[in-house]
Amino acid sequence: MGGAEENDKHEGEVEKEHKKEKKEKAEDAGEESKEKKKEKKNKEGKEKKEKNPEDKKDPAILKQKLEKLDSKMQALQTKREEILKLLQEVEQGAANSSEATA
Questions:
Q1: How many C-beta atoms surround the C-beta of residue 54 within 10 A?
Q2: Which residue blocks in the chain are alpha helix, DSSP H?
């Protein structure tokens, strides 16, 4: 009987070591991905052009920005309407299926 208990203890220790190694690998991978993200941010930061404070006073640039925002808002509104339609269809389908089972 004592042999079986020792075997179980040994398996438990091996399992703990395996979990520990796995955790360490995951932490190392996480650190690598963080470093890659930092490098990517640095690259993006270098490519961005600097903002000109006079742009806030230029009516032509402000109009362009406003048009850009309007176009984005229209696209989002269209997506919202599509999602609402899908949601209604799903809810009606669910209501119809629950009525059929009742």
A1: 8
A2: 2-47, 59-101
Max CA distance (Å), the chain: 88
For residue 68, the Cα-to-chain-centroid distance in whole angstroms is 25
Contact 55, 61 (CB under 8 A): yes
- Rounded to 5°, angle at Cα 12 from 6 and 18: 140
Q: Express each pLDDT in 50-93 by its tens digit.
A: 888 888 889 999 999 999 999 999 999 999 999 999 999 999 98
Return the residue matching tokens 């979990």.
Answer: 19
Rounded Cα distance between 59 and 87, Å, is: 41
Q: How far is CA 82 from the centre of its chain?
A: 22
Return d(Cα 1, Cα 17) in angstroms, integer: 25
